[in-house]
Amino acid sequence: MRRFEDRQPPEPVEYEPASVKDLLVEMKDTAELLIDLSYSAVLDGNPTIAREVLALERQMDKLQVQARMSLMLAARNPTETEQLAPVLGIVGGADKISDAAGDIAATVLDEVGLPDAMREALSDAVEVLVRGAVADESPYAGRTLQDIDLESETGVRVIAIRRDEDDWILNPGPQTRLEPSDVLILRGPELGIDKAYPALTGSEYDTSDPSEPELEDLERAVDSIVLMKNLSELAVDLAYGSVLFGNEELAEEVSKVEVEVDSLQSRFEAWTLRAAADAADPIQLRGLIRLGSATEVISDAAVEITEGVLRELDVHPVVELAVQESDEIITRTQISPGSTLDGAAVIEGVPETEVSMSLLAVRRPGDGWILGPDVDETLTAGDVVIGKGTRTSAAEFGELSQVWAVSIIAGRNHITSSVRRAFANVRQKEPRMRH
Prior knowledge:
435 residues, alpha+beta, Methane Monooxygenase Hydroxylase, Chain G, domain 1, Alpha-Beta Plaits, 3 domains, six-stranded antiparallel sheet, four-stranded antiparallel sheet, 14 helices
């Protein structure tokens, strides 16, 4: 529960003519930023970022009301009503993600306590969250993000910049210039962080494993919540993919992931309670419980996004227009025989190429969907790959696969070896999920 001083009454909202597409774009981009910033606040124990999350959450509340108003006016006949009904699910899902992010950030403001192992484990999540300062001698100092083109080169994104103590730049744009001593929060695959971090900070990125909790049950609880985070964000990616592609199979996979997250939450709560019996200060575990509950809500929101697909309702074209305007995109490509990707190995969720694309899922003829391909997975002709990357890397990936078309949607995360390690620790079995 949030502190009273962090609660504010809802802002009055009046109808204003607004594009449904623009509202959807802003809601989706805001929701994605909120997840990143909320976990960044936890990682860094930073109340300033946490308050920014709550401010963005209030903005999201206003956006979802405006979107509902616009949708009510947009439906002019039964056909449009059927097409726009699923959009309400997308709006509701984004709003739930926003609320969950606010609850995650509130753990920092409420000072409810989190084990150090939890913060360290977040740096081993699907996409690494890293904090680092721009060195004076960095080749990136004094240059804009567009000039550096960090995302295309490494798959790493600068999601926030702290300048002059408490001056934060959230979701910086391409014309934002990096200055020496800027503190950056980076998000991206570990392989990309390994490349970008030294150039930015002048020091090597520490890839050592996080310290293990002293209590075995607490270790399992921490592993569980990191896996819940990874799977919940994967569910959101797949949900948007199912909507854009009208793919019922992907929507069903979202439901299966959500069931897995629910099961993980149940075990997570049990292990946390067991750990409390032996912990020197059980109060420090309250934050874990809050994180677990909020993370589970994200997977629930993903299911809400897919409701229209599961009910076989055609989604209005405005959704496709909206999701194609995202900075980060998801691609669906099919591997052609003899292409560069035919026979390419997958290493920690990343294809063995120079292209900074990450894999979410592979549909293989005869095997169905493979979520989070294993480290020894090899792409073969006929595989349908759901991947994530920048627009530039998506185009290059499409060329390597020699696919005839690449469809795109807004994207977030990829599955890496951290998911496999978490499954091994939590369930003592391989994480590959075939259906």
